[in-house]
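Input structure tokens:
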């Protein structure tokens, strides 16, 4: 993943192209293909295959726990982050008078469940300033009514990486009853997570974690299990799913286990367990050490071309994403595709994503094309 030879061995689809769009869709390594074939073989066994399926689920829980420095029973899997956030909303049971704080750099899945909560809580917006979320702007939003502070460690929109320590300390000091939840979708697998003391972590599987669609990691520490237990129907997460009283009451397991409400998406679990083990073998620290200088090179190159990024470079707080707007964005996208260079182009914004399988030559090719539009 980190050298020209190893990346082509594990990611043969990179041959002849520059892929800088992991923040939208990752390229899974070849071991993930093998994992999906293993799922097929096990599924072909019929009911007997479930023995393998659930063993793989437990192995995935162990793998995720290892990456998150938590225990396996503090980890569960949903089908996507939207499902996880809506289940979190059910656990909080927000009411009129309660308040939720979100940022204006959030993806919709983390920003909208609170708008639809039956209790109609108040939603307060932490707004960025020139691409940066200043903790000083968070302080006035916090009070004794704050029940949830929902943030992204890395913004999907701009690549801004949150000042986690300052955010955490403010919430703990001025809204001590609030749940502090972090969307790590655009960070998990790419940066060393410094938010492992959050009350809830949610991250999709098909971006920097190098898995496929249909998976999402959810982690709730044991200390928060009592108040972060979902209120959803289902069966896998219920302690009394097949007991005699199942038609008169539902007793969910507590904490992370309560987020696994039904039959797991086993193909995604097989893929995710394998991709997480792949990342663990390489080491997230090594990926960050390799890719962060490439991100810095993107920032430097754009600055030299007179192109302002949507979020400034953050020495020591690098993420994998750099985004910018340009009045010739469509023409730039066409020129990049002509050179087989892939970035995200959406709503007038170009977003560059740098992972461990990217090389300095990828950045040089990108900047060479952008130089034609300076």
């Amino acid at each position: 993943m980190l050298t020209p030879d190893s990346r082509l061995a594990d990611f043969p689809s990179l041959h002849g192209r520059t892929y800088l769009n992991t923040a939208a869709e990752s390229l899974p390594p070849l071991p993930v293909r093998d994992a999906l074939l293993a799922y097929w073989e096990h599924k072909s066994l019929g009911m007997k295959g479930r023995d393998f399926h659930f063993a793989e689920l437990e192995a995935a829980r162990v793998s995720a726990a290892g990456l998150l420095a938590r225990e396996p029973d503090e980890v569960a899997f949903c089908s996507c982050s939207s499902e996880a956030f809506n289940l979190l909303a059910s656990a909080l049971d927000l009411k009129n008078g309660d308040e939720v704080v979100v940022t204006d750099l959030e993806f919709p899945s983390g920003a909208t469940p609170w708008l639809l909560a039956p209790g109609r809580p108040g939603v307060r917006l932490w707004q960025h300033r020139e691409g940066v979320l200043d903790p000083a702007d968070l302080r006035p939003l916090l009070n004794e009514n704050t029940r949830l502070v929902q943030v992204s460690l890395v913004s999907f929109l701009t690549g801004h990486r949150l000042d986690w320590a300052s955010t955490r300390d403010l919430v703990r000091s001025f809204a001590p009853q609030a749940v502090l939840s972090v969307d790590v979708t655009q960070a998990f697998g790419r940066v060393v997570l410094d938010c492992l003391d959050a009350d809830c972590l949610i991250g999709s599987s098909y971006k920097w974690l190098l898995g496929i669609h249909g998976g999402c990691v959810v982690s709730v520490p044991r200390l928060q299990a009592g108040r972060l237990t979902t209120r959803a129907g289902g069966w896998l997460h219920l302690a009394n799913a097949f007991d005699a009283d199942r038609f008169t009451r539902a007793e969910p397991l507590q904490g992370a286990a309560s987020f696994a409400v039904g039959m797991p998406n086993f193909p995604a679990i097989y893929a995710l367990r394998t991709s997480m083990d792949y990342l663990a073998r390489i080491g997230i620290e090594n990926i960050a050490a390799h890719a962060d200088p490439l991100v810095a090179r993107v920032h430097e190159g754009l600055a030299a071309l007179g192109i302002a990024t949507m979020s400034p470079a953050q020495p020591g707080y690098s993420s994998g994403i750099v985004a910018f707007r340009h009045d010739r964005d469509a023409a730039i996208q066409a020129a990049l595709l002509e050179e087989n260079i892939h970035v995200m182009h959406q709503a007038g914004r170009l977003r560059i994503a740098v992972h461990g399988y990217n090389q300095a030559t990828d950045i040089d090719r990108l900047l060479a094309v952008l130089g034609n539009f300076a």
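The longest strand covers residues 146-152. The chain has two domains: 4-20+283-373, 32-281.
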